[in-house]
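Entry for the shared binder. Reason: the reviewer on the internal report wants the predicted structure included alongside the sequence.
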Amino acid sequence: MELLALFVDIVLHLDRHLQWLVANYGVWIYAILFLIIYCETGLVVTPFLPGDSLLFVAGTLAAGGDMYIHGLFALLVAASFSGDNTNYWIGRYAGPRVFTRERSWAFNPAHLERTRRFYERHGGKTIVIARFVPIVRTFAPFVAGIGRMPYPRFIFFSFAGSVFWIGSLTYAGYFFGNLPVVKENLSLVIIGIVILSIMPGVVEYLRSRARRRLAA
């Protein structure tokens, strides 16, 4: 319970925590952000990391002069792209047998199944669209690897998705981060980003429940 409370506090007050990291670790903040984005996109055991809000807040700090926005953008695109490729090859190596694994603290097969349905519906575009859907974005390259999507095609969608996802959120934070209404209500903005991020998952969950009821 304490860990959950700590996680919620970190998500809702990302600005304070990132400012503390910048003040105490200086340029190492770039390595920390790289690692977080890499883990969220590259490891199926870390789908809970707050990617969307983290990118926006990082952009706001860059607007305040704490980081260099263009370098931040390039670095995090590299982190996202590298994570995707790691995840793809893990999925390709693991193969379909991973669907038979039991649930554990580090792995929820329901997330994998949800991503598989998403992938069947949208095809290769899943790698781009899923960037804006928490959990799905972590499992999408993994499922692409399991399904043996041609690697050149995967690279194209992965790079396009990385540029679009990282660019839209970091530059949104950069261009709007200095507005008084944003600076004074950043916690509310973060909550709004979190709600918008999980909304597609909630809608999909409600739709799947409705389909099961109709099929019963």
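Summary line for the report: The chain has one domain: 2-215.
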